[in-house]
Amino acid sequence: MGRELWKGNEAIAEAAVRAGLEAYFGYPITPQNEVLEYLSHRMPELGRAFVQAESEPAAINMVYGAACTGARVMTSSSSPGISLMQEGLSYIAGTEVPMVLVNVMRGGPGLGNIAPSQGDYNQICKGGGHGDYHPVVLAPASVQEAVDLMPVAFEIAHKYLNICTILIDGSIGQMMEPVLLPEMQPVVRKVYDWAVSGAKDRKRHVLSSIYLDVPTEEKVNLRILGRWRQAQENEIRFKEYFLEDAEYIVIGFGTAGRIALSAVRAARAKGIKVGLFRPISVNPFPYKQVEHICQRAKSLLVVEMNTGQMLKDVQASVKNRIPIRFYGRLGGVMPFPDEFVEEIQEMIHNPGKPEDDSADLWYLRMMAR
Amino acid sequence: MATPIVNIQNLVYSRPQGFTDTPTHYCPGCTHGTAHRLVAEVLEEMHVLDKTIGVAPVGCAVFAYNYIDVDFVEAAHGRAPAMATGIKRVLPDRVVFSYQGDGDLASIGMAETVHAAARGENITIIFINNAIYGMTGGQMAPTTLPGMKTTSSPNGRDVETQGYPVRMAEMLATLDGGGYIVRRSLHDPKNIRLAKKAIRTAFETQVHGLGFSMVELLSTCSTGWGVTPVQSLSWLEEHMIPAFPLGDYKITPSVAALKI
Amino acid sequence: MPAKGWIEVNELFCKGCELCVSECPPKVLELDNEKLTSKGYHPAHIFKDGCTGCAICSLVCPDAAITVYREVTKASPSPVIGGH
Predict the structure, then answer these.
(1) Checking DSSP bridges between strand A73-77 and strand A99-105, what pairing results, if any?
(2) Which residues of B touch A56 (CB under 8 A)?
């Protein structure tokens, strides 16, 4: 099977189907409507479950129900819809059942707009709902990468009994790229020793996130934390470009990382020894790897489509050893590669100090435009 | 031919004061425009434009605030009746209305809609029912008809797996808080006139403190239905009126007694 | 004698949807294919005699693009201004 031209949202949906997706529950919201629309005919075609729910809270609670049976279940939404799903996400995490979430970020806050943004990094990496839990969050930078991560997402969700989120933005959701889809995997309903399915020939299972006995709740939180610690060990993913002799390193995820690659190539053509570090798992964040690459670099440039959210994670790794410059675009504005090239050049000419407040200096530069 | 007739004494109709000068973004022939116009005309005739606050939905009419010349707030999807409640409770002497589509009012906002009616909230809801989600590209709505093709029911709405349409006017009329709950249509001149009268009665219900009022307006979506604007009028008449019968579903005696 | 009427279509608002053309009782309206509005629509216009100023066009117009006039005569002394 050769490569085919697929729209991001639809490719992700088909990749999920081929990874054994058994149930999809969603609600329309731009820019991810195509996930819902594609699955509205693909799932019934294969005899699998599909419901367009009445709202995002309804959709996530349908996911919650299906997750309690151990089925491979997924939903997708965008910024305001993810906010609505947060209560459900917390319940799913607290009940320790698996699910995959596709989050197609748009301009915000509030209703915002339908343009691409990365403004929900904090929301989704620091939980996405109330309580002490950590979803695994993977941030592909192309349609192919998203397709490749779909089966991984289900594996992660089911291995750690956690939420695995595919974090993209409207541009990846909407763009069409040549893609090689994987082979269709059969649906395998794994029999979990905790799942509900009718207590025939076994003791009954009760799934709940209620733990009125406070010491028990603490034990549950430690159990959830234990599995998260394993994920932190095992699920770090990132990609490095031109780092072998790099004196300067750009760090960006998703679309910002992809645009940064164009900028890094352009800067290299000008003779600048710059490289790119692109986290793919933004939660768990590759703190150790970022700390490691700092040792070789004179300074870092962090680029994001937000006001400096992943920046904080980079700063936690760098610990003021070298200067960090920050550049962000907001509200759905997509940066061009030459903006990043200018920033790289500025970084070289005005290196700054390690203790500089990167976000503060960026803000002042933005206001001076 | 024209010039002697075109003068102010001969003026029969001109664009209402309650309309801004902004051309609307609605598709050609979309009856959102008609509904907006009727609301603007009624508010002007009642002389309440300057004490009205509108609540805009999420849907094609998300930019309603650009067209009707009154104070407006923008609600989250489905939450307009709740926002309207918040405004009306602190400013009870103002005219507060929400303008919502079928996704906003009957899908995600079902709870807010039902409870505003149950509380007898003195707000007016203008409900645009065109059996489809327009703004997001034509997905199925709670009011989509059985067998109707949409982008999320591509083989036609299958009642076995996707359920049946909901009739909001009938459902809300069972609640004691409702003062005036009716269904009208915008598909021809006679029905547009009746719709305007209903919108007027609904706002009078509010102004006289007689409970929750809602006018459900059967509307067209030529883009979503895949027909021309002119065809959409007959599509509505042929398909939607049998499924959503026009009529008065709740009129309390005190509303009926109003002299308008 | 039917009343004499006239309409003006504001090209800023007309989207050429043809609802007025379809509903006009004496059928005096059509889209002007020789003209394009700034948004690229063919606006509606009166193309033959017979307008009675009944205002049904403005009643169905979703864009409030139409202004309607009716000649005041002894038979029909005053038009309705503003509403329908």
Answers:
(1) parallel
(2) 108
- Is the pLDDT at A153 greater than 60, yes or no? yes
The parent domain of residue A244 ranges over: 238-367
From B172's Cα to the closest Cα of chain A, the distance in A is 18
* pTM for this prediction: 0.89
A160 and A242 share a domain?
A: no
Task: At B240, list the tokens.
Answer: 């939607």
Q: Nearest Cβ partner of A41 from B136, B137, B154?
A: B154
Write down the pLDDT at residue A191.
87
- Counting CB pairs under 8 A, whether chains C and B reach 3 or more, is yes
A112 — contact with chain B (CB < 8 Å)? no
- Tell me: the pLDDT tens digits for B8-46? 889 999 999 999 999 999 999 999 999 999 999 999 999
A163, A293: one domain: no
Which residues on chain C are in Cβ contact (under 8 Å) with B31? 62
Which domains does chain C show, CATH number per domain? Answer: 5-70 (3.30.70.20)
Domain that holds residue B66: 15-256
Alpha helices, DSSP H only, in A126-191?
A: 143-160, 170-174
Which of the listed residues A234, A268, A293 is the one where a domain comes to its end? A234
- Ramachandran assignment for A198, one of left (phi > 0), alpha (psi -120 to 50 degrees), beta (any other): left
Confidence of residue C75 (pLDDT cuts 50, 70, 90): low
- Residue B90 at interface with chain C, using a CB cutoff of 8 Å: no
Q: Which residues of B touch A (CB under 8 A)?
A: 58, 62, 74, 76-78, 103, 107-108, 110, 133, 135-137, 139-140, 142, 151-155, 158, 161-162
Q: How many domains is chain A partitioned into structurally?
A: 2
Could you tell me the CATH number of the domain that includes residue B159? 3.40.50.970
Number of domains in chain B: 1
Residue B40's alpha-carbon distances to A332, B36, B221, B245, B246, in angstroms, are 33, 6, 21, 26, 23
Interface test with A, best of B77, B100, B157 (most A CBs within 10 A): B77
What ipTM is given for this predicted complex? Answer: 0.93
Statement to judge: residues A217 and A267 lie in one domain = no
Q: Which of B3, B11, B12 is the best mutation test for C, with the most CBs of C within 10 A?
A: B12
Distance CA C40, CA B102 (A): 30
Average pLDDT, stretch B92-99?
A: 96
- A238-252 burial: b if 16+ Cβ within 10 Å, else e: beebbeeebebbbbb
Assign A365 a pLDDT band (cuts: 50, 70, 90).
very high
